[in-house]
Amino acid sequence: MPATFQEARPGRVFVGRLPTGTDLVEEVERFCAEQSIIAAWVSVVGAVTQASYAYYEQSEQRYIELSSDRHHEISGFVGNVSLRDDKPFLHAHATFAEHTGEAIGGHLLRGNRVFVAEVQITEMTDVSLVRTHDEATGLALW
Questions:
Q1: pLDDT score recorded for residue 3
Q2: DSSP 8-state symbol, 63
Q3: In angstroms, rounded to a whole number, what is the distance separating the alpha carbons of residues 74 and 125?
Q4: Are 56 and 115 in contact (CB under 8 A)?
Q5: Average pLDDT in the 10-15 region?
Q6: Cβ(15)–Cβ(119) below 8 Å
Q7: Which residues pair with 62 in a beta bridge?
């Protein structure tokens, strides 16, 4: 299947800090719903007191859920917002640094408790990004 692309234009840009103790995924999705953001790029700098992430087992087409209840720096974060079930859905991958300098991470899940999170949300306009089930991968993709 050939790659397909849509042209997107930058829209509004929001920056802010999430409250300590909140769920990172829930807060981003809540904000996007309140602002009627249906497509966006998201970046985060900060730390969590609890990390929740997953690894997608391709051969079994299922997520293996992982978590850590220790403090972690967010050393990498890339994500986007699109529509899934008619609601803004955050799809993000994050890398968390351990106190030893080792890294863990993967597909971000609910359950990441914010210690501090500085967030940038860059809205994309003139584009339709809707997640639907893809038979080949078992994932909900654009």
A1: 87
A2: E
A3: 28
A4: no
A5: 98
A6: yes
A7: 57
DSSP-assigned beta bridge partners for residue 47: 73, 116
Q: Which two tokens stand for residue 106?
A: 């993967």
Q: Token pair of 140, please? A: 């909900």
φ, ψ dihedrals at 28, nearest 5°: -65, -45
Residue with tokens 């940038």, as numbered in its chain: 120
Residue 75 clears pLDDT 90, i.e. is over it: yes
pLDDT tens by residue, 23-59: 999 999 999 999 999 999 999 999 999 999 999 999 9
Taking residue 71's Cβ as centre, other Cβ atoms within 10 Å add up to 16
Distance separating alpha carbons of residues 43 and 35, to the nearest angstrom: 17
* pLDDT tens digits along 99-133: 999 999 999 999 999 999 999 999 999 999 999 99
Q: Could you identify the residue written with the tokens 């900060």? A: 46
Determine the distance from the C-alpha atom of residue 98 to the mean position of all C-alpha atoms in its chain, rounded to a whole number.
Answer: 20
With beta carbons less than 8 A apart as the criterion, state whether 66 and 105 touch: no
**pTM score, whole prediction:** 0.95
Tokens of 86: 């008619």
Residue 11: closest CA among 88, 119, 124: 124
Does the pLDDT value for residue 87 go beyond 70?
yes
Name the token pair of 74: 């967010």
